Amino acid sequence: MEDKRLKNGGHFPNDFQTLLLKAALNDRSEALLSFLEWLDLLGLISLDLNSSSFISDFMDKLDLGSQRLMPLVIENLGTESHPYFPKFIGYRKNLWVRNQRIFLAAKELLKKLNEEGIPTLILKGLSLANVYYPRNETRPMNDGDILIPFEYKSQLINILKEENSIFKIGADQENMIDFVHASHFFQDKNANIDVHWNIFTEYSLNRASSIFAWDGAIDFEWDGIATKRLNPTHDFFVVLVSGRNFENIPPIRWVADCIMILKNTNGVLDWNEFIRLSKDFSFKPFIQKALPYLKTNFWPSIPPEVMEEIEKLEPSHTEVMYYKSVSDDIRKYGFFSLILFGTKRFLIKYKLFLNEKPFLGYMFKWYKQRFKNEFRRLINK
After folding, report:
1. DSSP 12
2. How far apart (Å, rounded) are the C-alpha atoms in residues 20 and 200?
3. Contact predicate 373/175, CB 8 Å
4. Where are the alpha helices (DSSP H) in 42-121?
5. What is the pLDDT of residue 128?
6. Residue 67's closest CA among 290, 257, 252?
7. 30-44, 164-178, 284-298, range with the lowest pLDDT
8. N or C: which end of the chain has fewer CB within 10 A?
9. Which structural domains are found in the chain, ordered by start?
10. What percentage of the chain reaches a pLDDT higher than 90?
11. What distance in Å separates the CA atoms of residue 259 and residue 102, rounded to the nearest whole number?
């Protein structure tokens, strides 16, 4: 087995994280056995329930990706199924409050964008927590995500730069606006919203890459506010490929998101559409790893013909190299490896996704803005 905690980040679920995911997602009897085995393996089986530091004693042994699965584990098993769970009541209330702050901020922004005639579509946690999860706190969030059409990007920036706007864009974000797929807008320290003009970061300059989302979108009314959300098949594809990168917070929640969608739809998705998207986007190596993992561990009824089609996908050499570059921890060998492998990743990403842009001009502008941001950050320290 791998390192138990992966405190410094992670990528694909390891054995310990898979056990916790089973505790969160499987039928209750099997899930409880997985949870007890997980507790034992992590040395959490006999913590002092009377200790004032119980929650920190428990959470300190978990990576951040596993920490944010705990509300779903408790929901799946039931609060009374283990003596530890009542101790998490305050923790779950705090997550509920944080999500509500994000929801309120998102609704304010959706209303503003509606007034300005900008179409909107809620993504990721905003949609998942409201549609697929049993309670919104079982899908904790750090921010909200809203998609707008690519052609409205300039209008969005101009609106949110107005003096009376309650949402602000940071100078660092504004400087990189031509290189990114989304920008972070701050309402206050407790509620931030990412507004996307493209769903995937790799396709930041591709105007057509998110058309599939709009073509299949479902109308969604959220407390009287009109917006849209992804259909279940597109939601499934987007959340599945969200696990493709190494992250400081191990991105294992894509597994829970996928299974919650499958549970909600009884596994009835447009699998032909899923296969089409898998062919169209350059995430094939990860999809070929992720879908069998879901079938083996959580959802055996994924149709065999779908598995066959995914297995037959032929990733290009560049796609394989890109997946390897984004799924590895390039920090592990120190500062120079960060520069070396970060530059290699940049070059592969350019070749795969941005090849139509003049390379030297694009690279010069990108590094220029990055250095300006770093210089400003140093001055403001």
Report:
1. S
2. 28
3. yes
4. 54-59, 64-67, 70-77, 89-115
5. 98
6. 252
7. 164-178
8. C
9. 15-92 (no CATH), 102-267 (3.30.460.40), 330-380 (no CATH)
10. 73
11. 24
